[in-house]
Amino acid sequence: MGVTADQVAEEERRTVLLVEDDALLRVSAADHLRGKGYHVVEAGTVIEAATVLSSGPPVHLVFSDVDLPGATGGLSLAVWINAYHSNVPVILTSGVRAVMPTLADQRRIPFIPKPYDFEKVAALIAKVIAEAFPSRQG
Prior knowledge:
- The chain is α/β, with parallel strands linked by helices and 138 residues long.
- It has a single domain (12-132), classed as 3-Layer(aba) Sandwich (Rossmann fold), CATH 3.40.50.
- The chain is 46% helix and 17% strand.
- The chain has helices spanning 5-12, 23-35, 46-55, 74-84, 100-105, 118-132; strands spanning 15-19, 39-43, 61-65, 90-94, 111-113.
- A five-stranded parallel sheet has the order 2-1-3-4-5, with helices on both faces.
- Strand 3 (61-65), helix 4 and strand 4 (90-94) form a beta-alpha-beta unit.
- The two termini are 26 Å apart.
């Protein structure tokens, strides 16, 4: 018995871990990304995100807010991911004006300021995933 096209499509579907404490924004962004064909796992805190990365499904990209509740935020999460899951790219976002210039000027981690356009986020996610996981076809 062979593998069906649906099974191949499901296996090649990329998983995005969306880390955002604003539930309305998280659900809206997740719905948009699902509409673009991504499997989206949602987390509201750094602890939830770390749990997913450590024991959940394979994640192809993390899209995280910088300002998250708790002792650590999105920047700490990005550092932890770089140390323990270095193959997983991170995109950061923030609406906090004080951090915007610093994050926008650095080149290591892609940054998109809030409020953001869902289409621009989806395009950036597609670009970063394509660079991190080149197609096996071709």
